[in-house]
Amino acid sequence: MGITNPAAGYLEGQIKARILDTPAIAARENPPPGVNCAFDMPVRGHRPSQLLEGLCGSLVLWASSSTETNPPTPPAPASPSLQGGPDVHRRQSAARYSLAAVSKLSFRFPQIDGDTGVRVEARFGRSADRRPLWLRTCADKPVRLQPDDWPAGLAESVNRRYAAHNGFDKGRVLFVWTAGSDAIELPIACCWHVHRGNWPLCVLDAGWSRSLKDAAGIVLVERALFGALRQLAGDAHLRDTHEPRPSDRIGWRVNHEEGAGSLQARRAWARAVATRAQQDFRFARLEKNKRPTWARVGFYGERAF
Q1: Domains of the chain, residue spans
Q2: N or C: where does the chain have the smaller number of CB atoms within 10 Å of the terminal CB?
Q3: What is the pLDDT of residues 86-111, one digit of tens each?
């Protein structure tokens, strides 16, 4: 077809991300040993089974019993009682959280196309109404953020990370979940990256839902997400084979030259993300001669864990 491997990888990532947005036109029972249901999806030019099996790998879709067979608009978020479905985050009322001390998270590190993926499902605290808090990656539980419920640019950052460098399958977005009988709450999110060489793990964006007060959001991100990255920074599975990786500090990188859309829109997104890094999380901008070679363009800052 004349398409390069990087372009094919980008296309595959975009298809995986868009599947989370695609409305189902039918749901039916699936015979054992398959998953508990199957979706018929209006994807032009492909049979759904071909698309899902050929491009999605381990992505599993689940449906609730109330799914409409011919909806004019995308279905409502899946029931929180179901595991593994692509839920859409909804804004919830502000709540306080009680965080338990977690000495060590049980990460798993599957091989994804020759690279190291990350999986985690850890309970580490509870909300004010005593619902448990869970730390998961996007590969453990896919989610699509609604931009109006999050700070400027964060939902776009998550979409970018899903699509770039197989970030979706590698689990390069961390979320904190709390689920009850009648609502799904997703209070915080973090996109991150690990690069070869003696450079720290790098945040690409992080923040908290607009449903949270700033003080609660900062504490959750620092304790849950940055705490998880600190453990990952010292894990042998992500250690560079030639250079020691710093585990005492973390980076934050924003690059407006990558991605789709107009240059003006990309610059506006990058300004919002870089401002968040400096104002909310105290990342200090580094001069270009002190940066990694892969982060010379755009914003790059560092701070101690």
Answers
A1: 5-55, 108-304
A2: N
A3: 444 444 443 456 665 556 899 999 99
